Fold:
Amino acid sequence: MPGRTQELYLLLLLGLGLGQQETLPPPCESEIYCHGALLHQVQMAKFFQDDKHFVDMPLSRAPEQVLQSFNELAKAHNHSIPRQQLLGFVQEHFQAPGQELQPWTPGDWKDSPRFLQKISDAKLRAWAGQLHTLWKKLGKKMKPEVLSHPNQFSLIYSEYPFIVPGGRFLEFYYWDSYWVMEGLLLSEMPETVKGMLLNFLRLVETYGHVPNGGRVYYLQRSQPPLLTLMMARYVTHTNDTAFLREHIGTLALELDFWAEKRNISISSGGSSYALNRYHVPYGGPRPESYSKDAELADTLPEGAREALWAELKAGAESGWDFSSRWLVGGTNPNSLSSIRTSKLVPVDLNAFLCQAEELMSHFYSILGNDSQATKYRNLRAQRLAALNTVLWDEEKGAWFDYDLENGKKNQEFYPSNLAPLWAGCFSDPAVADKALKYLEDNRILAFQHGIPTSLLKTGQQWDFPNAWAPLQDLVIRGLDKSHSPRTQEVAFQLAQNWIRTNFDVYSRKSAMYEKYDINNGGEPGGGGEYEVQEGFGWTNGVVLMLLDRYGDRLRSGAWPVLLEPHCLAAALLPNLLLSLMLW
Ligand SMILES: *[C@@H]1O[C@H](CO)[C@@H](O)[C@H](O)[C@H]1NC(C)=O
Ligand SMILES: *[C@@H]1O[C@H](CO)[C@@H](O)[C@H](O)[C@H]1NC(C)=O
Ligand SMILES: *[C@@H]1O[C@H](CO)[C@@H](O)[C@H](O)[C@H]1NC(C)=O
Ligand SMILES: *[C@@H]1O[C@H](CO)[C@@H](O)[C@H](O)[C@H]1NC(C)=O
Structure:
């Protein structure tokens, strides 16, 4: 059976024109959770509201037995199993999702971490205390069965307990975990962070990369690479250089994955530049969104379907699933069927890698390995030159995703266009003030509830009117790098806007959300493939970071402020009025 599967993948790779280096077996061979007739029939029957439900269900017995019963059932019904029988089969052979995880109270959780004392507004301080308490609700640990019977679970066994985002996301996610860890460090929980880091490092040792999330059906793809940064934050917090020394080789291995499997070379002005892209050379619908991907493919000619699925997976790898960013330049930019993620060179991905290269160079010099330190310093210098030449736009004062096929930049607004500022990946300090002008030119400061993900309303969740916590962080901490008081003041006001949105929704709903709709008074967001999720790991992390950074100034009752240039001088006036009224 594995032989046939590999053959199939090889054909598929050739069909995609990707017949290059892939000699490894497909990263997920499960004929239940990743591909095959069982997955197809059950997902297309849509027994559950969300396709993720089925692929999260543990098996009640060994996969060979489940497959054998399925084959017998299929044969008995000439391969078209009636709905009721199929449902009966699922009920008999699968268990409810979430059974393999158990609640876990982090051992290093404690009352009253110090940073709470930096928050002067009493309501915000109480709220931060509640978010700190939420780590106990989001903490999960795997049951021993996952280790003893790994084939009966889609969950990938991880030794150390971890924090999940919440809602439908019962397992850990790669880039989410960075903002979760920032929050955990403020909560003085470095042991929890260390465990999560060890889980990720083990995944790199096993698979060569960090998968999108902790399930086998996520193995084909990664997510924005922030592992090196996670290590940097942990090491800064703890001074644990022994841990760094022990694992630096694994960090290097992860960067090799991006350098070798996600690289692209671009010619410009007679020179060639090496940059990176999101790219997943595997076809087939995403198991956790199977019926949606299959139905979308039905709108295309058969020969185009595998390529569509590969591009959808690359979109998921970008973390921005999905967005106009990946639809630009396609035949129908309003339809997901035009997705062409791998044809774009993303600003944020290259900024994250640039930062990782700088950190690696720094790490290696701390550890006394000068040749490796030089290697990464040179890689960063090359990337900086490539960013300047290929992605930077002097006139607009920002970086833009580069469209490889059309040979031009995508000049739409996205917060990711300022990621190099956040990542410290620039040489001219003036870029922070140019970034402010870029935000003003796009009238981004006119939004009172948060920075929108784009100005395009496509119905995708990584577009207008949704606002996401990590993107607020990218812009706020980017602007905060400026030496100009005005730019720093805007960074603060953006933080105030976001805190107010999160706090107001929390006050009404007692919940934190994955994303917020800034067009609608900052309600929980919508759009995309599934219902908005409560929890929520990275949102909590970003709120704690902002409360730590600006705790002496942030107010729970602050009035919405328009940050248009002419309004900025008056930015403090509403607060003044409010205090007069209260007085
Ligand atoms: C089984 O289904 C195929 C088409 O899917 C059909 O041609 C065939 O006649 C069927 N056989 C029986 C025994 O019903
Ligand atoms: C880490 O080391 C630095 C410099 O030696 C020191 O200032 C800092 O307090 C140390 N931090 C911890 C958590 O030990
Ligand atoms: C990526 O790098 C590998 C080796 O590191 C090289 O063989 C390959 O040609 C590169 N791919 C692209 C598209 O540049
Ligand atoms: C530096 O790191 C490289 C790669 O891990 C290793 O081969 C080399 O021996 C190291 N050099 C020193 C001086 O530690």
